[in-house]
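Job type: complex structure
Entries:
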Amino acid sequence: MASQFFPILVILALALFVGFFVVVLGTIFGPRRPTARKSSPYESGMVPYGPGTRRMSVRYYLVGVLFILFDIEVVFVLPWAVVFRELGMPGLVLMIVFLVVLEVAFVYAWKKGALEWE
Amino acid sequence: MTAMDWLVILPVLVLSGWALTVLLVDLWIPAKYKFITPLLTVLGLVVTLGLSLSKFGNPQSAFNGMVVVDGFAIFLDFIFLVSGLGAVALAYRYLRRMGIERCEYYSLLMFSISGMMLMTYANDLIMVFLALELLSIPLYVLAGFVRMEVRSEEAALKYFLLGAFSSGFVLYGIGLIFGATSHTELPAVAAAVGKSSANLPMFIVGAALLLVGFGFKQAAVPFHMWSPDVYQGAPSSVTAFMSIGAKAAGFAALMRVFVAAFPSLSADMSWVLWALSALTMIAGNVIAIAQTNIKRLLAYSSIAQTGYLLMAFVPYGNNQVLGDTVAAMLFYLLAYMLTTLGAWAVIIAVEKNGGEGLELKDYAGLGRRHPLLGAAMTIFMVSLIGVPPTLGFWGKFYLFRTALEGGFVWLALIGLLTSLVSAYYYLRVVVIMYMQAGEPETADDLWLRLVALTCAAAVVLLAFMPGSVLSLAVRAVLQIL
């Protein structure tokens, strides 16, 4: 039993070595010539502007929540569609029940004004 | 899966379908006619109650044994649905008074009740988890229903985080049990383990994790930390419902899972439950003495009641007394429901906007100014102590008697002594109501008075025929599948 896990132990040791010693060696022996560009947070990305704690609109949050609704719908519908023929009529009925429950939530959110942008 | 299966769980189907319908219908009800929503809710709850009671005496199982609808389940359904009706009556004017009148309250209430009902039907660990989530998630939202108030938000967040954590415990426990036995169906788990589980450490750890998860729902010490803060922050009508429903559902799950799936662990688990019960009784009653806020007082009191109820589980492997203890537990839950519902009705009547009117000193003079409410509150406090002639006395009497029959003399003694301790803080409420001068204002709310007086009458009148109530509970237990 225990011998089955030996390869995992080896990988763990290797990972520790690479993650720890290599970085330590690099910081000790590597040359260090910092420039303004090299010290920026994203060396090869955009130049950051403004403070990091700006206010943002949280209206995306509602869109995000509604997205989860349809995300879950797809997660369930896709495997169901693959085996649709084998499931037959009961499968169709159950999926309709599931979709109705989901749409109730959607209609509720719509009517409450979750989709109004302003 | 046949049509028969769906008929067996019809009460839950009707209630959850009705909750969806009410959620939708309310969107088109104009503001002037919002009183229709609670009416529809009451209709749904009463129909479900009828459907559920019609199954009494006819135990059935469905979906290949994943759910069982037996007398035990129906007795608890009755408790959930009646406390749900109580929560509607308590909330109807209260929500408007507090400026939080929204229909979601009623839908969430019904969703939560369907989760609780499913919990009592569950005969499979997956169903137990599903029901646990279905009952918890609406309660998290309901706890934060007064979203303008920081205290309510804090209650909701605390309840959600700790609740999610305890759900994790339950899920991890289910995973380990499945790993050890490769079954999730409760009887199959018991069969796979056999008589002794000594060589299955994974199974034992899984069972312990489940106990932690259920202990959280019941607010048993040391898993009770959330309950005073949540009970205080949540709107009072939600607290009333939560302290009855969520607790009873936790006990339903504990009873189903431990009796059906873990008989092999009973020798060891019984001492764990013994300690849990003793600790809960002592800590709940002793900490309650120091409380000055009535909501926190009742929160600790409900923790103490959990301790008394846990007493029924200590001899759970002993088949000779098991029937009696479960019946005593059901009886106690019924007494607890009536008493707590009434006590919360009085509290809501005295409560004012913005968390005012919740200190014990706000009750000064209530007994003289409002004799009926004062008398009702006195009855509830006396019943919570367990003094005759109230239902609470018989509840404790039967519980202690079954503990003695099971051979747990010390536990019964601890129960008796902590009951004496509890007399101090319960009677203090009565003393403040009658002996101290004050002119408390109460809300002009007919429904609160109705709930308080009905519960008070039931607590006193049923105490004169405890035998017939108990025999009902025994009949319910005899039908356990």
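Summary: The two ends of chain A are 62 Å apart (CA to CA). The helical segments of chain A are 6-29, 36-39, 59-82, 84-111.
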